[in-house]
Design brief:
The chain is of the alpha/beta class. The protein has 22 helices and 16 strands. α13 packs across α15, α17 packs across α21 and α18 packs antiparallel against α19. Bound molecules: adenosine-5'-diphosphate, magnesium ion and zinc ion.
């Protein structure tokens, strides 16, 4: 929601006051005419005549006002001079004592209380209202001033230690990172031990790793273990529209931290402010530089006695300013990698807590099926599995739910509603059958886990093949087998229908990319010398390329292109060969797919043995 501006605010308050004021005013004027005053005013002569006739039952004297109740219940009123008493008045008008005795006379002390109130109130209320309005507006303006002053304060939130405390045991795997951070905890708990030996305690720890690997979680766990205040701020929160805010927030944050030392300051996503200075693209880097400078100044500022430890997290260590990384600042780097199979199982165990699983669920198998998944992905898998189970109104989560959610996280949700016509379905079946067949036949390719012609995400169908264990190295033979499997869909379509569809284009793109890597990066081409081509600005452990700088001649470029084509052609021939040789099996798989839509590993292998 958009917050109303100050002017809007005042204006709205003013309008509210105006309405309230008008309401009260109209109420008062209404009240002035009605219910008490429904009686009719008469003159004194009439009143006297009525008394003389004996029609009057009661007279209530209220100061100068006489409220008269007649025998028939009618009410009226009249006025006399204030000083003159009623009896004197009546006597003067010649009312006899006897006539007077028949009338009940009540004297009310009206000059005080109500009378005063009712005459003064109409004057006072507007003053009160206007006074109130002025006071309220002043307060508003002051509030705005205060808020403007708050602007330069850090937005750091102190983590409530009672609420949802995280400990190291909640962080699965990440052994090296934990060991490193345990030292920090030890220092926060017991600084004397280190100081006595003259050890300089690291001031800053930089957690580096791809998103979702548990950097934020780990930092919170450090706070939980050390049992000290924990200030959490995100790098982007330093940077605001106004110049100088970032630096002032840094100052404020560190002032607070020093006051509550020992404590931990956690700057998440520090690359938002910590980028290399002077390298800013776009114009707004001045402010960021000031902020960064302030961080550097503050980190240098505290001495060894001050137990403030700064933990920062980033997934772009390559863009950080070198000044941040020099000893005395973030001199410790803890690299957090994607979890291996054992760590994945451990993470799954942590997140399986509180979820009712059927006995057929094997977390080890789930870990096997999820290479390349981050901790966040894994926690997402189990959550999706629980949602699947709940949607089917089951009491427990079964293995099938979990396997399905892995595919969902990997490839996007199934699109069963996506209707393919018979022709498209047939083409998809043969295409996927081609991938599966070649993957099965080639010993260097990973085993097939599942083949399906149900659409998922952007893919029309899919063939899942996963290694039995995590691999850190890949051989040339494996790559060549992979290329053949990738191209097999295209080859199968061409073989069966003597035509190809656009469905194979994604396969081709992936195959081309892999072939280029084989030639240019891995030095696996015989024809090219043993070197890499292209100076890549690549984030090694992120596996993402930002740009490439050509460091070879035109002629070499042509040679590279030739080699890449060579690899692709050879692989395509290999795939075609296999498809020709086992065309009955291809037929078998495709027909089964058309019938059942999905084949799991066991069913697929049985089919291949037949
Ligand atoms: P990052 O900050 O590295 O992007 P987070 O720390 O925010 O990632 O992790 C996101 C979520 O993933 C965590 O809240 C947690 O549920 C899960 N997670 C990630 N790594 C682990 C791990 N090692 N153990 C347990 N849960 C993890
Ligand atoms: Mg994070
Ligand atoms: Zn394909």
């Amino acid at each position: 929601m958009k917050k109303p501006s100050l002017q809007q605010n005042i204006f709205r308050n003013f309008a509210v006051f105006l309405v309230v004021f008008l309401f009260i005013a109209s109420l008062l004027s209404f009240y002035n005419q009605s219910p008490f005053h429904q009686s009719e005013e008469v003159d004194i002569a009439t009143f006297v005549t009525q008394i003389k006739k004996g029609e009057v039952e009661q007279v209530t004297v209220e100061g100068e006002k006489l409220n008269i109740t007649l025998g028939d219940g009618k009410k009226e009123f009249t006025r006399k001079e204030t000083e003159e008493s009623l009896t004197t008045l009546l006597k003067n008008f010649g009312v006899s004592t006897k006539q007077l005795e028949e009338v009940k006379i009540v004297v009310k002390d009206s000059t005080t209380s109500f009378f005063i109130l009712s005459s003064i109130l109409p004057f006072i209320i507007p003053f009160l209202l206007i006074g109130g309005l002025i006071w309220y507006m002043m307060r508003q303006v002051q509030g705005a001033n205060n808020r403007a002053l708050m602007f330069g304060q850090s937005r750091a939130r102190e983590l409530n230690p009672e609420k949802k405390r995280v400990n190291f045991k909640d962080v699965a795997g990440l052994k090296e990172a934990k060991t490193e951070l345990e030292e920090i905890v030890e220092f926060l708990k017991n600084p004397k031990k280190f100081n006595a030996l003259g050890a300089r305690i690291p001031k800053g720890v930089l957690l580096v790793g791809v998103p979702g690997t548990g950097k934020t979680l780990l930092a919170r766990a450090v706070a939980g273990e050390a049992d000290v205040p924990f200030y959490h701020i995100s790098g982007s929160e330093f940077v605001e529209m106004f110049v100088g805010v970032g630096a002032s927030r840094v100052r404020d944050l560190f002032r607070k931290a020093k006051k509550t030392a020992p404590c931990i300051v956690f700057i998440d996503e520090i690359d938002a402010v910590g980028r290399q200075r002077g390298a800013g693209l776009g114009g707004s880097h001045d402010e960021r530089e000031q902020t960064l400078n302030q961080i550097l100044v503050e980190m240098d500022g505290f001495d060894n006695e001050t137990n403030v430890i700064i933990i920062a997290a980033t997934n772009r260590p390559d863009v950080l300013d070198p000044a941040l990384l020099r000893p005395g600042r973030f001199d410790r780097r803890v690299v957090i990698t994607l979890p291996d199979i054992k760590e994945r199982e451990a993470i799954l165990i942590v997140h399986a807590q509180g979820k009712p699983f059927a006995s057929d669920v094997d977390l080890h198998v789930l870990a096997q099926r999820t290479p390349g998944f981050s901790g966040a992905d894994l926690s997402n898998v189990l959550n999706e599995a629980a949602i699947f189970a709940a949607r089917k109104n089951k009491k427990k989560i079964i293995m099938q739910d979990a396997l399905e959610s892995i595919e969902k996280v990997m490839l996007g949700p199934e699109r069963r509603s996506h209707v393919m016509n018979e022709k498209e379905k047939k083409i998809t079946a043969y295409h996927e059958a081609g991938h599966a067949l070649v993957a099965h036949v080639l010993p260097d390719a990973d085993p097939v886990r599942k083949v399906s012609i149900v659409s998922r995400g952007a893919a029309g169908g899919y063939t899942l093949k996963l290694p039995g264990e995590d691999k850190h190295f890949h051989s040339k033979a494996e790559f060549i087998a992979d290329l053949a499997v990738m191209l097999a869909g295209h080859a199968a379509e061409k073989f069966i229908f003597n035509d190809v569809t656009t469905g194979a284009s994604d396969d081709l793109r992936k195959a081309t990319k892999l072939a280029r890597k084989i030639v240019m990066e891995y030095g696996m081409s015989e024809a090219m010398s043993f070197r890499t081509y292209g100076e890549k600005e690549e984030l090694i452990f992120l596996g993402r390329e930002i740009g490439e700088q050509r460091d070879y001649s035109e002629e070499t470029a042509r040679m590279i292109d030739n080699e890449v084509s060579q690899f692709l052609n050879n692989s395509y021939s290999k795939a075609r060969e296999i498809i020709l040789k086992y065309k009955e099996k291809l037929e078998n798989i495709a027909q089964t797919l058309l019938e059942k839509e999905t084949l799991e590993q066991e069913a697929f292998e049985a089919l291949m043995k037949a």
